[in-house]
Amino acid sequence: MSIKDALLAKSETIKVEDAEGRILSSTNISCPPALPIMFSGEVVDKNAIKVMKYNNINYCKVVVE
Fold it and tell me: Which of 2, 29, 30, 51 has its CA 20 to 30 A from that of 59?
């Protein structure tokens, strides 16, 4: 999904553990290092979940399908 479409789509906030296979609506940036783990419109996979959990990100916004 394009970044624009993902940002404008209806979304919901869910636990990171439940996001596998879902499309990320908005980015989560941990600080530091303040680098995005994923971009809007990307499908959340196991590796992204692992990195988000490592950076203490427990919730994310995903597109409602």
Answer: 2
